[in-house]
Amino acid sequence: MQVPQDGEDLAGQPWYHGLLSRQKAEALLQQDGDFLVRASGSRGGHPVISCRWRGSALHFEVFRVALRPRPGRPTALFQLEDEQFPSMPALVHSYVTGRRPLSQATGAVVSRPVTWQRPLRRSFSEDTLMNGPARTERLRARKWSNSQPADLAHMGQSRDDPTGIEAFAMPVSALPRTGSDPVLLKAPAPLGTVANSLRASDGQLQAKAPAKPPRTPSFELPDASERPPMYCELVPRVSCVQGTSLSQSCPEPEAPWWEAEEDEEEENRCFTRPQAEISFCPPDTPSCLLGPQNRPLEPQVLHTLRGLFLEHHPGSTALHLLLVDCQATGLLGVTRDQRDNMGVSSGLELLTLPHGCRLRLELLERHETLALAGALAVLGCSGPLEERAAALRGLVELALALRPGAAGDLPGLAAVMGALLMPQVSRLEHTWRQLRRSHTEAALAFEQELKPLMRALDEGAGPCDPGEVALPHVAPMVRLLEGEEVAGPLDESCERLLRTLHGARHMARDAPKFRKVAAQRLRGFRPNPELREALTTGFLRRLLWGSRGAGAPRAERFEKFQRVLGVLSQRLEPDS
């Protein structure tokens, strides 16, 4: 689990439960206003505020912003929506004492912490005294202090009884352990050889008091060959210790596929004759959110998705979308067999080739499906006007997190902007007016930054250099190669056509650079399995059209759903 920078203060808070699953957290929340803070196992240990509000359990991920270390300021800031705090306790104190809602969309207010009853920890001497008079006498027989390093080998034994270490040995399972304690080894290394390498004064008086030991324990893995110390094992720092080997004690986890380094030969490979058309859509697997057979727009699934997206900060959602888009485009996670079949090493190259027709159609469907799902997030809010304005704000913040210089996922940015610019959404005058009134910064960013940026990207004149962009904007090139005509006057359409073709050539040429940038953006990222699934094309297709309707022709499906969105828009704000 990743411990936040203010981990010492956080671990001592009564409302912090450490590593806790969502299901166990919801079982502890009984009444409206109850809350706790936990470390999410699916989010790499990031702090999550779980609360109960209006009978429902809600989960809000706390976004952590790392700062450059400087004297006099914190190393990280924590935030839910707008305001940032120097520590998690400061954030919780502000929201609880000020009775402030954790999010504008839900209005959830927390007031009663659910405390964690930590077990009382007993010292070594207390455990010894409770085990009988024989061990008590043996403890009293020691006449020197064990605070010096030279006594590590004699811990629990007297000078006259060399077998005392066995008499005082306690099984690891007998030691009480809390959520913040390190995991003890099942078979710790013997410490008999430590005394020779760590000789001190053997209890003799010194002219100068020894230096105060550091607060962080000096422990590392035995024989750690160029590996950083890990907190999962406690082994004294010595040059050579006989004991459990590294491979047996704590195996190194495998790196995820999006962090796998590309072979240099694969990057520099030349074009070979393609064998078959390639699809990068993940195979159909049992869904953790949908059943084997589902109807379109099931209310329970929509409610689960709403809570799932509210739990994650826009920056986290942007990284999830970047990961799924990179896989759908064939930028990351391409196998050797897929490369051999398509003749090139990247989906960005395949898009420009004649046998990339299947991939182009899949990306067009993904773009349109994501846009429809984003519009549904706004048009499906049948509650008060502020709820729809908050949904608009969430989409704007997600678009800002996807733009160049941030996540750099331009296909995801295009899909979110397509939802915001959809006629059924843009006609909601009262909703947009409420957005400008309640969330002025988001409204200004949409009008002054996002709309001009999207216009430039569609015209082939936007930013596309690897570095600030991890995944380029492929929709104009895909539409052009699939036969769609370029709109606008003839002279402007010709210039736009030439810019699009020029950008496509550069996109294919710079595919290895985009791959490196995307892998760097996702380095250390551990996605939430449910949110990752919710952003895939196959899941969204089944969510919008059901398990039966998902197999209908693409044009027919999109035409029907556009009519559904039109009806929802008219119900929210009828024409006057």
How does this model look, in words?
There is one protein chain. This protein has helices at 7-11, 22-28, 88-97, 124-129, 133-140, 164-167, 194-197, 246-249, 264-267, 299-311, 314-329, 336-342, 347-350, 357-379, 385-402, 410-420, 423-426, 429-438, 440-458, 475-481, 490-509, 511-521, 529-534, 537-549, 554-572; strands spanning 16-19, 34-39, 47-53, 56-61, 63-66, 76-79, 84-85, 112-113. With 576 residues, the protein is of the alpha/beta class. β3 (47-53) and β4 form a beta hairpin. Helix content is 44%, strand content 6%. It contains 25 helices and eight strands. The strands form two sheets. Strands 1, 2, 3, 4 and 8 form a five-stranded mixed sheet that branches. Among the domains are: 16-113, SH2 domain (SHC Adaptor Protein), CATH 3.30.505; 299-572, Son of Sevenless (SoS) protein, Chain S, domain 2 (Orthogonal Bundle), CATH 1.10.840.10. α14 (357-379) packs across α20 (475-481), α14 (357-379) crosses α24 and α15 crosses α19 (440-458).
